[in-house]
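Lecture 7 notes: from sequence to structure.
We start with the chain below.
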Amino acid sequence: MTNSKLALGIDVGGTGIKAGVVDTAEGKMVTDRVRVDTPQPGHPPILAQTIKELVEPFQGEGHFDAVGVGFPSVIKRGVAMTAVNISDEWAFEDVSAVLGEAVGHTVRVLNDADAAGLAEVRFGAGQGINGTIVVVTLGTGVGTSLFVDGKLVPNTELARMLVRGKPAWERVANSVREKKGLSWEAWTADVQEFLCEIEDMTWPELVIIGGGVSAEAHRFIGELKCRGQVMPAKMRNDAGIIGAAVYASELASIVV
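Predicted C-alpha cells for the same chain:
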C-alpha cells in the first residue's frame, strides 16, 4: 500500500450525489460513501454549494491528492457541452472551475458514464480484457462508455440510438421501467434491441451492464443474446466515485 494514491471522487447523478476517498492504485474506497439528494432544480450555485457541504468532512482528513467529478454531461476540457438530467443552466458552464472554487481544490471532470466505465474496466468486470468494451449504465437515464484496449474514448452518446422509434434512454432507462411498471420481459426486449444496435456499430468483445439495475441482473442478463459477452457490472454504487477519482489522480500525475 506504500504506492497508493488517494483521491476524492464525486459522482453527480440526476437524483443523487455521492462522494468518497479512493485508493486509486487498488480501486477501493478508503472511507464510507456519503450521499445526498441532487437539488431540484440543480442550478450551478445551488449544486456547487451542495457539493461543498457534502465533501467538507473529507477536507478535514486532508489525505487526498486530487479531486475528480463524474458529471451528467458531455464534457470537453472541463466544460459541460450538454445538460441531461440536470439544470439546463449547466450547458456550456465550466464545471471544473465552478466546482473547483466550491471545494477549494483543482477539480477534474469527466462524463459520469465514462467515470463508471473507467472503474469497471480497470477494476471490475472488464479488468484484463483487451479489444472493445462498451459499458451501458441504466439508471435515471442511460449512459454509455467505450474503451479500446483499456483506453477511454470519451463522450460516446450511444443512448441516442433509436429503439422502436425513440431515443434509447426513453425505452431502456431503469427509471422508465419503474415509472411505466414494465414487466422484466418487456423491458428486456427493448434492452436487447439497444444492444443489437450497439453491436452493429462497435462490435465489442464485452458489454457491461451497470447502473442500479445491475443488482437485478439475474432477472434479465440471461435473456440477452449478443455476439459478444454480456456481464453485469461489479463495482455497483461505487463505480462513479472510483472512476472519477482514478481519472483525477492520473491527470494530476501527468501534470506533475
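Points to note: The chain has two domains: 6-112+238-255, 125-234. The helical segments are 44-61, 95-103, 112-123, 169-172, 174-180, 184-202, 239-255.
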